[in-house]
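Q: What structure does this chain adopt?
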Amino acid sequence: MMPKFEYNQVVNQEDIQRLGNILEQCFLMSSGDSKIFFNRIGLENFYVIRAGKQVAGGLATIPMAQWWGGQRVPMIGIAAVGIAPEYRGDGAALSMMQQAVQELHAKGVPISTLYPATQRLYRKAGYEQGGISSIWEVPTQSILVKEQPLPVGAITGDHEIFHELYQQQAKLNNGFVERHQSLWERIFKPDEKETIYAYLIGSAEQPQGYIIFSQHQDQDGSFIRVRDCAVLTTAAAQSFWSFLANHRSQIKNVRWKGSAIDSLTLLLPEQTAKQKSALRWMLRVIDVVKALEKRGYLPGIQAELHLEIQDDLLAENNGRFILSVANGRGEVTRGGKGEMKLDIRGLAPLYTSLFTPQQLQFAGQLDATETALFAATQIFTGASPWMADFF
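A:
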């Protein structure tokens, strides 16, 4: 049978206009705002789902990469998933996501990541929780870090130095993305009546971090919103906090993006920093072999894990696999004992180290022998996965 809905790229001006109208309605945009979105991400990265000849919805596929175990894994970010109201509830969204996953697999993409408005839809397409994006807040009066070992100087114009420092930080954090240009534009693009300030931490010859922020006022008072930052050394972390503390006469709070357990808070004298919000993003393993082989692992680990994976959407991911890890890299071969049984969803939080193998077994996400649990714990132990970007 032919599918009820057909998924393909935006092909003409009529598609653009229709999809733009749908996205503006879905995401409460002002009329015409979708054009900014199209220009930032690139029309070549937008797809639509058609019901007959009518565009029923669409999404954006953002080509990036994600860092896992110190290695860069090619990744497609899914964004701007929108369905016209008259087509909601009849399977258009699920059909679009399933066909998108199949398209990504055909292109050889290892993994895909997205931020869900609802988990149920994306779980049906094989996505599962992969990591966290938290917003923290601390009162400036409580920072009390006075020592500033490094200079902090304003930067205008060339942003290339920020790209380089971000890449250094990204390699050290599980889940960070190799940013698409649209994400950089969001950082530096001010909203109406907003000024963005950018500072380099350290000297121009030996930069050790940066901070990019804007200043705001809400019902709780004035606050700094850190739009992006990189802190690569202890001296940079101390200078980061000292610089922000020096705003205390005018600014009540500082908000920044961090991990679930943020090591920057260790430099604060008291536990005054609080999580203001936390989102869990989702990951889908598109190609089991490529995803496991391109990921990095702890250099000192030498282990073998026998997997049995079920993927109802992509037959190539089904079956038994042996993951052999040594010298920080993994090799996958077909076959083995199948000592750890899981579906493609359960593989996502194991792959990202969001949960331990024991926690995933307790939650019913996998079924494994003690031998397999021990091997998986060795292989996938790592820093808690998080992401500084939203898309």
